[in-house]
Amino acid sequence: MGGRGTRACEDARRAAAGGRTLTAILGISAFYHDSAAALVVDGEIVAAGQEERWTRRKHDAGFPTNAIRYCLAEGGLAPGDLDHVAFYDKPLLKFDRLLETFLAFAPRGFASFLRAMPLWVREKLHLPRLIRKGLGGQYAKRIVFPEHHESHAASAFFPSPFEQAAILTFDGVGEWATASYGTGRGNRIELTHELRFPHSLGLLYSAFTSYTGFRVNSGEYKLMGLAPYGEPKYERLILEKLLDLKEDGSFRMDMSYFDYCQGLRMTSRKFHRLFGAPPRTPETEPRPLDWDLAASIQKVAEEVLLRAARHVRRETDMDRLCLAGGVALNCVANGRLLREGPFRDIWIQPAAGDAGGALGAALFVWHQLLEKHRTVQAGDSQHGSLLGPRCGEEEIKAFLDGEGAVCTRYEDEGALLDAVAGLVASEHVVGWVQGRMEFGPRALGSRSIIADARSTGMQSALNRKVKFRESFRPFAPSVLRERVHDVFETTPERESPYMLLVAAVRKERRTTESMDGLSGIEKLNVVRSDLPAITHVDYSARIQTVDERRHGRYYRLIRAFERRTGCPVVINTSFNVRGEPIVCSPEDAYRCFLATDMDALVLERFVLLKKDQRAAREAVPSDHRKRFPPD
Ligand SMILES: [Fe+2]
Q1: From the CA of 32, how far away is ligand 1's center (Å)?
Q2: How far apart are CA 574 and CA 90, in angstroms?
Q3: How many other CB atoms are found less than 10 A from the CB of residue 342?
């Protein structure tokens, strides 16, 4: 990695800090899934990004060279300027788990052991060397390795708006821990309890994800979306046979139903016999069994979380909770935790999966190891999770000129927003790129596709013609923060800037059309409210509240839409097609725009209409979708 003169950077940093030297910490997560980097300078989150956005490989697990390069550039640093580098888990402990699991299940575990070993030997056990190499040989100081769940916990607590809080983490697996809890106070976190591999809520949910025909580590979200179509018929069976759930939320799984310790599959034949069918073949229609299993495992996951939350509340005597780990992306469970759980307030790390571990590891070094003071900020200190690169006007212009794109540049923001709001209100699908890219799996109004939530045909049209994804998948709304209570059943002060909570559409907005006699996907076509495109079959919606401080121009766009239509809600879905990482650069956005039935593209102040791009459409290969294997 190329670097600038270390000395010059150091001088600049000193000058910027008024003679004081700033401390720069780089956090890295890699080699499992969702590799990422994050830069924290004097406790301030300066930049963070997932490697997939640059390499265009979804969930890219490689060394995050591009993300690191971006973070350093954003901070004006060369690798040699870094004071600390932190990696998000302990490779030797993880090796220990693989080895012990292999020994426990030998010889059946031998296949998975052999498969995992070359990678471990080649890369993971030589991490320090690999990281130094990735930093261009310019970083010679110490590399810190917090534990995996410490990184998750740090990412949940340190940026949160709470002076003190309970912390709960749930994921697939780190080194040994699969869940943990403890407390955060001021600038310290302490994890006191953990649940250990192979007993794992994340892996249990992933086992059902795999059995119902979706991909592990990316299809969990789809399984959650499928749940409202089914009935939780198997909830009791799961609790009777698959896991022994205790009152405190801890559990032991009956491993004879699972194959992830010894084989390369998630579920065993015994599991398939229990539910009376083989796993669904991917890309076939979900079966009634899949809808019902989705509903059932969702209920079980919620029950585990609720019990754990009640226990943690009692044990820690804290009335606020911070959550992280991949399971914390289950926004349906989060919504229930907020409504029915014992905590006054909850903050969830928006990059709750392993990408967020990079941020947690860096913050862990600053607060926990260097013992630096932590100042709680109103809202939080995650900056709306808008921590990625922005597309500069000149970069956009040069790119569009090079492509011969036909576009209009709006000097005046008011005119720009009026034009875009007009497009959305007349049922155009708009690709929207503005400001800094999101860190975490959700698009939050910087790299989003926007459409009219009032339109009855929009949900299926968007799935079919723009996203090329499964028809049952719901869309999420962005709603003006001050109007959230008018549309959804939340308290007026409720914020959900990271789209991590589900709430119901208010009763008076619902339609009473009967769903009697309809099963599964048939329910999809029933209009459920005056915002049909974002109202799921059970009236739920995965809401993002949008405010001017965090979201700037995106907020003002929805205001312009509200002025025009009276409606404070738009559809917000990530700017990509199925299997594609969210777009990063103007080029990514432009290609995705041309390859889909999107009607307009907004790149900062430039607006492109599809109908004007005839020549470009013909020149762009129609195989954009094929570049991205379905997820
Ligand atoms: Fe994790």
Answers
A1: 9
A2: 33
A3: 15
- Asked whether the predicted pLDDT for residue 524 surpasses 60, the reply is yes
Amino acid at 519: S
Q: Report the candidate in 268, 270, 274 with the shortest Cα–Cα distance to residue 293.
A: 274
pLDDT exceeds 90 at position 277: yes
Torsion sign over Cα 337, 338, 342, 346: positive
- Rounded average pLDDT over 382-404: 96
CA of 97 to the centre of ligand 1 (A): 15
Residues with CB under 5 A from ligand 1 (ion): 171, 354
Compute the C-alpha angle 520/522/525, nearest 5°.
130
Q: How many residues does the chain have?
A: 631
Sign of CA dihedral 205, 206, 210, 214: positive
CA of 355 to the centre of ligand 1 (A): 8
Determine which helix (DSSP H) or strand (DSSP E) holds 433, and give its type and residue range: strand 430-433
State the distance from the centre of ligand 1 to the C-alpha of 149, rounded, in angstroms.
7
Place of tokens 């022994």: 244
Between the CA of 508 and the centroid of ligand 1 the distance, in Å, is 40
* C-alpha to C-alpha distance for 585 and 446, rounded to whole angstroms: 12
Distance from the CA of 283 to the center of ligand 1, in angstroms?
27
Distance (Å, whole) CA 554 – CA 548: 8
* Residue whose tokens read 């080649």: 122
**Model confidence over 288-336: pLDDT tens digits?**
999 999 999 999 999 999 999 999 999 999 999 999 999 999 999 999 9
Q: Which residue has the tokens 């943990």?
A: 180
What number is the average pLDDT over the span 183-209? 94
Gap from CA of 172 to ligand 1 centroid (Å): 6
pLDDT at site 8? 47
Q: Which two tokens stand for residue 529?
A: 């409210």
CA of 160 to the centre of ligand 1 (A): 19
Is the pLDDT reported for residue 407 higher than 70? yes
**6 pLDDT more than 50:** no
Ligand 1 center from residue 50 Cα (angstroms)? 15
Whole-number Å distance between alpha carbons of 288 and 276: 12
- Rounded to the nearest angstrom, the distance between the alpha carbon of 218 and the centre of ligand 1 is 13
pLDDT at 7: 46
